[in-house]
Design goal:
With 623 residues, the protein is α+β, with helices and mostly antiparallel strands. The protein has 16 helices and 13 strands. The strands form 4 sheets. The chain has a 5-stranded mixed beta sheet with strand order 9-13-10-12-11. The chain has a 4-stranded antiparallel beta sheet with strand order 2-5-7-8, with no helix packed on it. Strands 1-6 form a two-stranded parallel ribbon.
Length: 623
Amino acid sequence: MNQKLIFLFFSLLCLRMSYAQEKQLSFTLDEAIEYALENNKTVKNAKLDVEAAKKQKWETTTIGLPQINAKVDYQNWLKQGSAFLPAILLSDQLRQDLGLSINDQFPVVFGTKQTLNATATLSQLLFDGSYLVGLQSAKVFLEISKNAKEKTDLEVRKAVINAYGNVLLTEESLKIIKGNKVVLEKNLNETQKIYENGLTEEENVEQLQITLTQINNTFQNAIRLKDISYKMLNITLGIDLNSKVQLKDSLESLTNQNITLSLLNAHDNIENTIEYKIAKNDKRAKELLLKLEKSKALPQLSAFINGGYSGNNQKFDFLNSKQKWFGSSLVGVNLNIPIFSSLGRSAATQRAKINLEKSQTNLTEIEQQIQLKIESAKSNYQFAIEQYINAKNNLYLAQSIEHKNQLKYSEGIATSFELRQAQTQLYASQQAYLKSMLNIITSKVELELVLNKITQNNKTITDETLNNTTNTEEIRALKKKILLANKKASQKSEFKKTTISKQENDTILIDKKTLDNETKPIKKFTGSVIKKEKTKLIVRSIKGVENGLYLIAGVFSKMKNLTHFIDKLTTNGLNPKYFYNPNRKLYYVYLKKYTVLAAIERAKKTKFNNQYFDNTWILSIQN
C-alpha cells in the first residue's frame, strides 16, 4: 500500500513538473527584449568576454607587483660521484696500508647521499617601459570588450524586434487571408449555383476557382511561415526551439508606438555611435603598440631578495629534530640594457607607426560612413512612414473598389475577371499595408542602432504628441499626413474587410421553377418572345416602378454619386432617369425604358445609337 502511495506521489510530481515546463511564456516587445538581453546565447558570451577582459587587466597589473616564490629541492644520490686526490696528502702509514706511492691518487666521496634545500625569493619589478604600456593596453582591451558587449546588445535588440514583428506579421496575414478565403468561397458557391441555373457563364466560375486556389496556397504558406517565425523568435530569445510563446502586443499598436518623428531631427552625435567608439579604441590600441615598440629600447630594472636552508644526511631523516640546517640569504638587482638589435627595434617601431597612420585613416573613413548611414537610416525611416500612410490610404481605396465590383458583379454589370482583378488588388494592398507597418518598426530600430539611441515605445501617436515635435517643413507635412490617416483610421478599421450588406449581396439564386417563370414570354410586350437560350434577363420586382425593359447605365448607393453621374450624362446631351430600389437600397440610372426586347437589344448593341459608349445592361421590371 505504501509503495502505491509513493508511486502515486511521484507520478503527480512528474505531471506537475511537466505542466510547469509546458507553461506558455508571454511577452510584450519590451519584455521580450529584456528577456533576450539576459538569456540570448550571444549576449551571454559577450558578458563572459567582458569578465575575461577584467581578469586579463588584473593579470597585467600583477606583473608590476611584488612576487614571492618558494622552491624546495630534494636530492638522493643513487651512486655518488668520486673525486681523486694526490696520495701525498695521506700519512705514510695510510699510504702503505692502501698500497699507494707518493705519486699516486686515491678516490674520495664528498657530501652526503641525500640533500634537502628550501628557498624563498621576493622579487620586485622596479622599471619596465613595456609594463607601463601593458597597463594602458589592458584598460583599452577592457573598453573594447565593453564596446563589443554594447554592440551585441544592440544587435540582439534589433533581432528580437525583427523576429517579434515577423510573428505579428504572419499572424495578421493569416487573419486577413482567412477572411478573404471565406468571402471568396461564398462568392464561388453563389456563382456556381447561378451557373447551374444557366444565368452566368462557366468562365466566371473558373475565374473565381483560380483566385480561390491562389488564396489556399497563400494560406498554407502563411501557416508554415508562422511556425518558422515563432521558432526564429525562440532562438533569438534564448529559449527552447519548440517552446510556446504568446505575444501581447499587436502589429498596429507597435506601429503607432514606433512613429517617432523626433528621430528624424535627432542630433548626429557620431562620437556616441558604437562603430565610432570601436574605431576610436582601435586607434588607441595602435598608439599603445607604437609606445610598446619604443619602450623596448629602455632598460629593465628589478630587485630580489631570497633566503633558504640546506640539510644533508645519509638517509631520509630530515624530519628529525636533531637534523642540522644551514641557512643562507641573498639580495641583488638585475639591470638589462638593450644596446644593439641590428635595427630590428627600429623596423618594428616604423611598422607600428604605419599601422597607427592606417588606423587614423580608417577612423576618418568610418566617421564619413557613419554620417552616411545616419542620413540613409533617417531617409529609410521617413520613407517607411510615408509608405505606411500611402499603404493605409491605398487599402481604403482597394476596399472601396472591391466593394463596388462586388455590387456590380451581383447585378451582372461586371465580369468575374473584373471582380478577380479587384480582389487581387485588395489582397496585394492588404499585404503591402502589413509590410509597411513592419517596415516602420524595422527601419526605426535600424536608425536607433546607427545613432546608438534607444527611444521608449510607450506612447501612442496623437495630435498632441505630433504637435510637440518641432521639425522642418518636410517633417511638418509628414505630421499632417499622419494626422489625416489617423482620422480615417478612427472611422474605419485597417484590417476589417469591407463587407456587403445582406440586401446588397443578395445575388440572384434562382431555382429551375423560378428560372422558367422569369424567362417565360412576357405577354404584354409586343415584340418577340423572350427565349431562355437567346436572352438572359435580370428580373426584379420593385414597387412603384412601371413594368418594362430598362437600359441601365449605372447603379449607385450614394445620392451624391448619383447626382454627379446624371449631371455628366445630361452634359453629354442625354436624358437619363433613375428609380430607387428600397430592397437593395440602390439607385438605378437608365437611359431609356423599352417595351420591346428587340428594340432594347438593338440600343445596347449600337451603344444607344452611338450616344453612350460605356457598358450597359438590361433590367426587366415585373411587378
